[in-house]
Amino acid sequence: MNKVTIRVPATTANLGPGFDAFGCALSLYTDVTFEETDAGLEITGCPEEFTGPDNLAYVAYCAVLASMSEELRGVKIHIDARIPVCRGLGSSAALLVAGAMGANALRGNKLSTQGLLNITNAMEGHPDNLAPAFYGGLTASMVDNGLPVCVSFPLHPEWEFLALVPDFDLPTPKARAVLPDQVSRADAIYNISHGALVLKALELGDEKLLRNAMQDRLHQNYRKSLIPDFEAIEALVRPTGAGFCLSGAGPTVLCVTRDKDLEQKLAQKLDTVTTAHWQMLPLFVEFQGAHVVPDLQ
Ligand code: HSE
């Protein structure tokens, strides 16, 4: 086999209090095709600025080949990215996962998923998007002795993750730069306790418990200043009873609900309280992680 396409789901990290730990795969995808050649590197399907050797899919592809002591040949990479870039929906993690799985698949799947996670986590720095991108569903992760350890959690099947995606981006390094180096004991306790209950609420499908538990003191308050309209949208969503949080580092915000009419209810008012344009994307849990797309030709 010298050609393979990898499909990777979008992911939302943190889920409120689970900063750098919780993540969930969502029903939006990036497909990346890798075809080995005798020429050098060719990347298509993305803006010119991302077609060099620092493209994350290629960086992960090279790292996995190196870890297997496999020869690096020429490769054509085609990216079909439906996950919006720099919006807090795991677009970077998706490229890393695709590159790692693409290299592994082309050379006989010598590495386990845990091995691929170890390599990509060393690049990304935190496993909260990578774990659900690899495994699907809801995951919680820790880094122990430098290596990621991830577990899957049960999830009620009827949640809708209504993503509100603005027309501006927010690079993750900028959204991490505003966070304090130290937090108080009270804030640490707040997040640990709320995080445990978020996982239970998501399992039970308990929207009232989720709305109360899905609150955070470690990152969201600091990031609000970087996201125009955040507070106005929060004020619009909270009375509906839905869970509400920043998706990853933002700027996308998430309403987590079992109310099938929430999108319609918000649509009537969203434009009247916001200054930017916010697109509503009704997403659902993707229980399947990244995988090879069967070649139907
Ligand atoms: N946990 C990360 C953050 C997700 O909130 O900064 C973004 O990569």
- Level-1 CATH class name of the largest domain: Alpha Beta
Largest sheet: 7 strands, mixed
Low-confidence stretches: none
Which hetero compounds are present in the coordinates? L-homoserine
The string of secondary-structure elements, in order, is: EEEHEHHHEEEHHHHHEEHHEE
The tally of beta strands, per DSSP, is 11
Q: Can you name the CATH architecture of the largest domain?
A: 2-Layer Sandwich
User: Which class of secondary structure composition applies to the elements?
Assistant: alpha+beta
Q: Into how many domains do the coordinates divide?
A: 2
Distance between the termini: 14 Å
Radius of gyration: 19 Å
Mean pLDDT: 96
Number of helices: 11
Strand residue percentage? 25-35%
Shape: globular
Helical percent range?
A: 25-40%
How does this model look, in words?
- The chain folds into two domains: 3-153 and 286-296, Ribosomal Protein S5, domain 2 (2-Layer Sandwich); 160-283, 2-Layer Sandwich (Alpha-Beta Plaits), CATH 3.30.70.
- The mean pLDDT is 96.
- The relative contact order is 0.19.
- The strands form two sheets. Strands 1, 2, 3, 4, 5, 6 and 11 form a seven-stranded mixed beta sheet that branches. Strands 8-9-7-10 form a four-stranded antiparallel beta sheet.
- By secondary structure, the chain is an alpha+beta fold.
- It contains eleven helices and eleven strands.
- A hairpin with a 6-residue loop joins strand 8 and strand 9 (253-257).
- It starts with a strand and ends in a 5-residue tail after the last strand.
- The protein binds L-homoserine (HSE).
- L-homoserine binds next to helix 5.
